[in-house]
Amino acid sequence: MEGKINIKNTLLYSIIALAAAGSVLVMLSTIFGLIFRFFIKVMEIDPNVLIQQQQLIEVASHVIALGIYFIVYKLIFRKDNKIQDEGVKVKKMGLCAMMGIGVSGISLLWIMLSHHIPMLQESGSMLEQSSKNMALGNPILVILLTAVFAPVIEEILFRGIIFRSLEKIRSGLFPVIVSAILFGLCHMIFVQMVYAFGMGIVTALVYQKTRNLIYPMMIHMANNLLSALMDIVPISGFEGAVNILSIVMIIPTVYFLHRMMKKKEIETTVEYVK
After folding, report:
1. pTM of the model
2. Quick check: 96 and 222 in contact, CB under 8 A?
3. Are the beta carbons of 10 and 274 closer than 8 angstroms?
């Protein structure tokens, strides 16, 4: 039976966790940047090297941040009752990757619609410029950052730490919606906020049913990988083919998500805030 719900304190905790997580990445990037600048000055290296190595700095920051977030996640929930999951199934991982492509298709439709809404055109231009800047980087580092480190880190933070903290307040759709809102807000550009919110809903629902972070990570990775490939692959017609594929995959994504939601949620004991 649920005790008295302390919504204010737990929401505050989630926001503080989000801010702290962002601060860790900023701090690590700053430290590595200062180290690079020091060596450039001492060794009289061309300053352009720092610009070229910016993504390498981000990779190093993300690797350390991933370790920190994982340790924090384990420490926060070490006393919680064990959550029973069904283990990792290859078939379900593939299904989630497919759903990630479908989520990308929904995002694409939203972006196309935003081009026809005057008040969103500036936000859309900012998003396009961000994609162009990404395309200038090293392709391997771009994929590592966007399709590996970002999904893993963000899922540990939002579906792991924040979702499970919100779940202590109330089960059901409450942690799904609030964690998705926070996930959307952290993307800063409004057009991106909206489709990030949508992906946050999907990944949170999948985690809620499976109790395994691997599955939302697969959705997130597939979505980001598709986006990264469209930015860095110069083959003519590639972007159009990917766009068609992602839109086609919307229907099976909705179907399989609906089927997953109909299944009985994996049994778990949540200690509510009193």
Report:
1. 0.80
2. yes
3. no
